[in-house]
Amino acid sequence: MKTAFISVVLGHLFTVILISAYRYGHKKDKLINTFYVSKCLEVAGWGLVIFRGGIPEYISLGIVNSFLFAGSAVETVALSMVMHAYNRRVKRRYIMFTIFSIVGFNALVLLGVSENTRIAFASLCTGMFLVYPVYRMITGSYSSMLKRLMGYLYGIVVIGLFGRAAMSLFTEQSMGFFTPSLYQALSFLSLYLIMILENTGFILLYKEQADERLIRMATWDDLTGTLNRRTFIEQAEGLLTSLSRSRSAVSFILFDIDHYKNINDTYGHIAGDRVLAGMSGLIKEKLNDGDLFGRFGGDEFAILLPGTNEEQSGEAAERLRLAVEHMRVPAIPVSFTISMGIITLDRWMEPGVNKLYKWCDQALYEAKRRGRNCVVRIRFTEEQQGVIEYV
Predict the structure, then answer these.
(1) How far apart (Å, rounded) are the C-alpha atoms in residues 259 and 275?
(2) Are residues 236 and 176 in the same domain?
(3) Does residue 193 fall inside a structural domain?
(4) What is the pLDDT of residues 147-174, one digit of tens each?
């Protein structure tokens, strides 16, 4: 029995050692620090179990299980953080339930209730810690295959814990780890498999989260929440190819903020950033799900409107221009406007994004020349003779 517990302790201990080495250069990583604390608590709890018989019974029961309850609580907090499902309300509930579990179990020990009753209580509490992260892993709308698989595996653990509680309450068979039986062997095997699931599974989830963060950094503009230039061009090229095959119309808009440099010079770059963020948020709200919206650099943005003809794109551009003109940003006491260049491709034209950008840039320059705060369309005939006209 002690050999089995030693193997569990060593598994958690090696995890603690490896995380300690990782934390040396990542001390501010809250997620890793949370998981590290949970492993330390579990090492302490299972480590004390090894000395059962050589230490007072209260320590081998009350203190040991208090460590294990706290470790389970902190570990499930780490799992919730991986799922982006941890907030103040969840934190408050975990704290309250952890206190309830520790106080309740120690009260049962002091009252001298039967071993099976204590086992039922401990199993129910440990299972309840896992219910919330399991639910989020399985039902999350953006859960990956790894998250769902871990959710199902942890779900099996929860069912096993609840089953152990039921058997402890409604059968006379001892459910203790130190009572030789088939259940004892299965319990030790389960402990070892759960240790592997906890340690390896969490590291994989952490790696997946890091990959998602890197992908987001490579895809989105942090300040405005729009696609960055490279990603916008990649996705737009794919859309243009698809639309050309289906012979559907498509419109491209290029715009920037009028006198943006003056905003930065007068009110500061922080105010300028708030203008960019506020304007981007407003425009995203008014675009359809299939539209592409990206930041090309500085205060210059591009929009691709799939399946939008000349009339529809003109109305959309004017609607966006008016929305920006009437918006207010707390950082600056004055309003600001945008100038827009727009082109609509007929089904017979198949240019790339670079050509669309070049043509719309000409229209945008014309909008600046005409006094700003307007939309200028550049239209092409079948002979591709450009005719710039005011919208």
Answers:
(1) 12
(2) no
(3) yes
(4) 999 999 999 989 988 988 888 888 776 6
